[in-house]
Write a sequence for this structure.
């Protein structure tokens, strides 16, 4: 008898989410529970905001004649009607001036090793703690509704709800910044946002203004190379690194100071899309990264990062040929190794986007005792900006909002202001007071916030140290450290961007800057972007390389497909054994199989024993949305698919994007039919392995091999 096989991700997701509810709970989640309301209560009648029950939310009050016709205007006295419209009119708050588009999740931080040698901060010294965290990922340029996969820097803002207060590290996935001084930030952001006359383009830097700014700010060169590398188009938020960028300070119990940069590295490795995929996904699935994060967490494939920092002892700060406070420079790992001390894990999705991800607010200035600021002028400016911007986004009492309030007690004499939540009891609202209420800790190792007592001989002036004027050495270091394929992608990225600039001074000048880094790069870009080809290297290349810059340096030791998406293409008459074997193999690796059918209806297996309802029909999805493709056999199924241009296109496109493709039995015919349509691809010549499986450039085909051996091979290559 035919049975319908349930194979939707939601079924899988729901069971995992159930487990999540019970298992992943922490102090912050408990704190948020106080504000949560179940909106699906069928017993509770709907009310106004002032709590009165409402009889009808579909009709406003009007004058109605005795026959039931409404004959007069809608009455202004109808407060139910007015409240609904008024609340709706005010639903939006100003979007973030940068990083408007984002996705957030809850999680935890576990410390593995006490860092008491450098800091007194509880979160970095007490290994028995689990600290709740909230993370917000973002793109920088686009507005709130823009696409996820544009070429851009990714924000990776991290809030630790520690027992000693909230600690924010407002980080990016690139370790350096475009400018050295915060005072230049408005110019930078104006230049990278859409141009002012026509507000074009959305969420991308491929326009004259940005590249004009880029040329005129030589200090931006290093970060430009990172942004034009594959780091600019990540496969997933789960596969990016986090860098605090600015230099912070740690202070230990003895009052000693250490300069630090925070870094965290994903367990899954650092991976990217290819540009053609990124472009297509921006239209096909603008929420690609948002959904990817959500799905992984719902399915229990919790993303993890090793958390650490680089440290330079007080007294060693002048030992480098760059200034350690200059945010356009990395501290090469050969000189300053990374000390990984803990693990970040994201293990719980939000309940409501606005209340959590939109209203969460980060401030670089929010540190905890044991952490301090360096004199980095970019950081000093940021410390003003974040607090300031929250005022216009959220109002003065923004730190009382559930997602922002600390899990430790908050007690002070800050009072009043719009949207105040706390009801402060007692007479005293000033210090000192006759009750001695709310005393500060006092200076000197008593656990309060304290600044390192640095001394500053000098005069006031608008200046930067001359050492900061060396701008190109680390851009060369970055480019030299890339693999050949990464270099090729950088050339293509610069070419794409400059091709979109139509003011010739912009692309001509920018190509001369590239010739200061690498002549062959500049020549290749010039060719593509319509500029004069430079003939000489304009600044000698030092030829040095460093580790930790290429993404290949972050390949996980144990390859993994955890959280990856595998499409299985079927039509009526598919081979059930191969289909089920592959699904099981994919699940076993914590990846997610998606059944793509020629229709989203029950489809019969070749042996007639089962029916499968697809998760999606083939025209509702694209190969770009998946990491790998599997085609089970079944003569009838393959005959249908072979006839469909779209099915053949799926295979060709997946091949073009270097995806793993596997086919078994008659499924091999579809791969052959599709790939023989691709120029220069000759499937003949590929040799079969001992078990009859042919593994050829990421395409595995086996006409006779068992489904099990195919599944084994397929899992191998999707890694
Ligand atoms: Fe930001 N940045 N930024 N930034 N930034 C903001 O604050 C600013 C910088 C970063 O998910 C704003 O709350 C200045 C570096 C992230 O909510 C604003 C300067 C790095 C986010 C602001 C910088 C970042 C922001 C806008 C000095 C990487 C999103 C909304 C030149 C280390 C946080 C907001 C979130 C957001 C100012 C430079 C990362 C306007 C003045 C360097 C991840 O305050």
């Amino acid at each position: 008898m035919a049975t319908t096989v349930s194979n939707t991700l939601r079924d899988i997701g729901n069971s995992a989410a159930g487990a999540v509810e019970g298992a992943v709970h922490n102090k912050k989640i408990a704190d948020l529970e106080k504000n949560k309301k179940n909106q699906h209560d069928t017993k509770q009648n709907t009310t106004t905001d002032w709590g009165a029950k409402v009889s009808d939310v579909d009709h406003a009050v009007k004058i109605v004649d005795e026959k039931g016709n409404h004959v007069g205007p809608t009455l202004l006295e109808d407060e139910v009607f007015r409240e609904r419209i008024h609340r709706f009119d005010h639903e939006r708050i100003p979007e973030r001036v940068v990083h408007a588009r984002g996705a957030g999740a809850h999680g935890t931080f576990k410390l593995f090793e006490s860092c008491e040698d450098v800091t007194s901060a509880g979160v970095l010294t007490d290994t028995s703690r689990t600290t709740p965290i909230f993370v917000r990922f973002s793109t920088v340029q686009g507005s709130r509704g823009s696409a996820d996969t544009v070429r851009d820097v990714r924000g990776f803002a991290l809030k630790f709800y520690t027992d000693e207060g909230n600690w924010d590290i407002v980080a990016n996935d690139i370790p350096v910044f475009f400018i050295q001084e915060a005072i230049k930030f408005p110019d930078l952001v104006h230049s990278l946002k859409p141009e002012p006359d026509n507000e074009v383009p959305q969420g991308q830097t491929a326009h004259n203004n940005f590249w004009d700014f880029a040329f005129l700010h030589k200090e931006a060169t290093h970060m430009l190379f990172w942004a034009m590398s594959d780091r600019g188009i990540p496969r997933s938020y789960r596969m990016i690194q986090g860098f605090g960028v600015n230099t912070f300070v740690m202070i230990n119990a003895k009052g000693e100071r250490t300069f630090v940069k925070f870094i965290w590295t994903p367990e899954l490795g650092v991976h990217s899309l290819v540009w053609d995929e990124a472009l297509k996904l921006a239209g096909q699935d603008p929420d690609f990264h948002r959904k990817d994060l959500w799905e992984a967490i719902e399915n229990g494939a919790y993303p993890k990062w090793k958390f650490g920092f680089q440290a330079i002892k007080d007294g060693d700060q002048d030992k480098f040929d760059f200034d350690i406070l200059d945010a356009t420079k990395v501290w090469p790992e050969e000189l300053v190794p990374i000390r990984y001390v803990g693990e970040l894990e994201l293990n719980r999705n939000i309940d409501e986007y606005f209340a959590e991800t939109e209203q969460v607010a980060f401030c670089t200035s929010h540190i905890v005792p044991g952490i301090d600021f360096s004199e980095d002028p970019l950081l000093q400016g940021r410390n003003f900006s974040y607090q300031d911007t929250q005022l216009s986004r959220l109002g003065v009492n923004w730190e009382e909002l559930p997602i922002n309030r600390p899990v430790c007690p908050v007690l002070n004499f800050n009072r009043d202001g719009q949207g105040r939540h706390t009801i402060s009891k007692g007479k005293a609202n000033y210090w000192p007071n006759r009750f001695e209420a709310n005393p500060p800790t006092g200076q000197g190792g008593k656990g309060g916030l304290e600044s390192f007592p640095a001394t500053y001989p000098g005069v006031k002036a608008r200046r930067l140290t001359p050492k900061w004027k060396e701008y190109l050495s680390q851009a060369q270091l970055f480019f030299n450290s890339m693999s050949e394929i990464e270099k090729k992608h950088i050339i293509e990225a610069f070419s794409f961007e400059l091709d979109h600039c139509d003011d010739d001074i912009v692309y001509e000048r920018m190509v001369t800057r590239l010739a200061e880094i690498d002549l062959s790069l500049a020549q290749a870009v010039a060719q593509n972007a319509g500029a004069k080809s430079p003939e000489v290297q304009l600044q000698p290349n030092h030829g040095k390389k460093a580790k930790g810059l290429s993404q290949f340096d972050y390949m996980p030791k144990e390859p993994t497909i955890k959280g990856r998406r595998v499409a299985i293409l079927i039509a009526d008459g598919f081979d059930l054994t191969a289909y089920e074997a592959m699904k099981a193999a994919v699940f076993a690796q914590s990846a997610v199989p998606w059944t793509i059918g020629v229709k989203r209806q029950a489809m019969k297996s070749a042996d007639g024993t089962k029916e499968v309802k697809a998760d999606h029909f083939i025209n509702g999805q694209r190969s770009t949305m998946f990491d790998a493709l599997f085609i089970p056999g079944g003569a009838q199924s393959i005959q249908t698919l072979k006839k469909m241009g779209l099915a053949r296109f799926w295979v060709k496109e997946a091949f073009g994007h270097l995806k793993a493709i596997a086919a078994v039995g008659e499924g091999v015919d579809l791969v052959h039919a599709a790939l023989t349509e691709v120029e220069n691809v000759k499937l003949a010549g590929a040799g079969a392995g001992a078990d009859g499986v042919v593994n050829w450039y990421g395409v595995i085909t086996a006409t006779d091999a068992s489904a099990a051996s195919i599944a084994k091979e397929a899992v191998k290559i999707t890694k």
Residues 96-99, 102, 136, 138, 155, 157, 170-172, 177, 179, 182, 185, 244-245, 327, 361-362, 378, 381-382, 385-386, 389 surround HDE (CB under 6 Å). The longest helix spans residues 377-394. The mean pLDDT is 93.
